[in-house]
Every structure is written in C-alpha cells, then in structure tokens.
Amino acid sequence: MKRRNFLRSTLFGAVAMQLNFTAKEKLKTIQIDNSFFDKREDTIFTWLGMAGALINCRGTIIFIDPLISYGADNETCETGNRLLVPLPVTADKVPKADVICYTHADSDHYAEKTAKILNSKLAPKFIAPGPVSEKLDKIGIEKNRLIRIKDYAIYTIGNVEIMITPALHDWQKVDPWKREDCCGYLIKTPDGTIWHPGDSRLIPELEEIKNVDILFFDVAAVDSHLGPEGSARLAKTSGAKAMIAYHYGTFDLPPGSYGGCDPDDSLPYVKDLKAVFLKPDPGEILKLPLNLK
Predict the structure, then answer these.
(1) Phi, psi at 113, each rounded to 5°
(2) In whole angstroms, what is the distance from residue 91 CA to residue 195 CA?
(3) What is the pLDDT of residues 54-68, one digit of tens each?
(4) Which of 100, 124, 195, 248 lies 20 to 30 Å (CA to CA) from residue 232?
(5) Nearest-CA neighbor of 198 among 234, 147, 174?
(6) Residue 120 CA to chain centroid, in angstroms?
C-alpha cells in the first residue's frame, strides 16, 4: 500500500496524519453543514470534488468552480456525469455566498444550474473570464454583480484580496481559447494564501507567482493542463507549503482522462519538494495556517 499524506482538520484545529491508501480506493464525502459558513476568526477551506473549492475567510465566503447540483437523480451531477461520490453540499442548501469565481467555461468548472440557484437564492458577486461572463449575462446576472476578469486585476471582498492569475487552456482544435478566456485565482487572506490556477498549460507567467501557502494541484496529465509535472514546478517556484490534489475521483471517467488520472502518478514529481502532497476527501475541512508539524 502506498502512503497517503493528508490533513484532517475540524473547526477547532488541524492535525497532520498519514494513512494507508491507494488511489483506486473510493473517496469518502464529508458533508458540509451550515456551521462552515459562520463568521469566524480564521480561514478554513475545502475541496468540493473535481475542481471546486470553498473558502470561508473570517466570514467571507468564496466559491471557485462550484459544481454542486445533482442531475435527474443523486447518481449524476448536473453535467450528466455519473458521480463516484456524493456532493459534499448542494447549491440549494448553501446559506451564504459572497463571491463565485470561475476559471473557465468547461462543463466541469462552470455549471449553469448551480450558478442559477446561487444567484437567485443569495445574489453573490460573480468573477469570470469572458466566455463564462457571457453565459452568466444570458442567465440574468445583474451587471453590477458581474466582474469580467483581467489578468493580474485585484478585487477586495471582505477580508480577502483576490488576484487574477493568467492561464492558457487552448485545448480546442477550432477557435481555441486565448489569454483571459481562462484564469486562475490567488486568494490572499490574513491567515495565508491559496492559489487555484485553474486549467492551464505551464506558461512562464505562472512561475512568477510567489508566497503561496496552498496550491491546488492539477493531477490531470492531459493536453493543455499543468499535469503533475507542471503543478510540481509551480509548487516549487511559488514556495507552496501544501498541495491539494484535484481533477480526480469525482466523475466516472476512463482512466487517464481529464478527471480520471491517478493522483499517485504525481508522487515521483513531488517526492523532492518541501511542500506536502494532500489528498483530502471532498468536504474535508482544512484550516489556515496549516499545522504541518
């Protein structure tokens, strides 16, 4: 059995642990309850499955690429993909959202049903690149709550500073996406910095991002993604202390596809890094600053 490093934390602290694990084993969803969204004195965050993230920075609630609505039944996501694990929270149960950030318009990142529910129920701000911004405009998001990204733009919401990081995810054979059609998010909180680079090739600008505490680590070893090698490179150049694996274990997809790669294939690339490689379950709560001792 390979060794699995991960952090299991509660609202009251974090403890570093090691468990026996193989990537073939099924993830176990941990349901997110309303207490996650309470006003607090620190920053907590969680992986939502696939590429989604949820952050509570001292009461400011940020979603990145939420894909949190079911399809016709609880076996499928709203995209139509069969789920390997349940969703940790659903859009209709979310009590608060201040800002929804989208990295790009692929269906495993932008989900219309989720966006509509969060918009009608909570009226948050939306930050998105052009192709997603156009979709949001069509479903009726008010213009004063819709921000179209520019590379390196900075937005302040509550206790959080959100900086747009560039991305190039030009997978299409016809009319491929260009710069500012996709993006990443550098979330700066009083308790530490979280970087979600989205889907991107390894472009030189990304190696200029520094002082990162948590790097969301794309394990998809497919075209136009960072993959294990590119993500490990960013962990090194950014000074990340911990890497959170994503793009796996959520949808029933063929092995080696964008969401079907084995995260343990990343281990050779991260073994010499100072950052720890974490594979939390969907909905598992992590706390900044991480206790890595």
Answers:
(1) -60, -45
(2) 23
(3) 999 999 999 999 999
(4) 100
(5) 234
(6) 23
Contacting residues for 258 by C-beta, under 8 A, at least 6 apart: 108, 220, 222, 225, 247
State the pTM of this model. Answer: 0.90
Q: 62: which strand partners? A: 55, 99
**CA of 61: how far to CAs of 5, 7, 26, 173, in Å?**
27, 21, 28, 37
CA 96 to chain centre: 18
CB 198 within 8 A of CB 167: yes
Distance (Å, rounded) from C-alpha 237 to C-alpha 210?
7
Judge if the upstream peptide bond of residue 263 is cis by omega within 30 degrees of 0: no
| Per-residue pLDDT tens digits for 110-132 | 999 999 999 999 999 999 999 99
| Rounded-to-integer distance, Cα 72 and Cα 133, Å | 26
Within 13 Å, how many C-alpha atoms sit on residue 202's CB side? 17
Task: Domains for the chain: give ranges and CATH numbers.
Answer: 3-14+28-288 (3.60.15.10)
**Structure-token match 């016809």, residue found:** 174
- 82, β-bridge pairs: 76
User: Which amino acid belongs to residue 136?
Assistant: L
169, two tokens: 């995810």
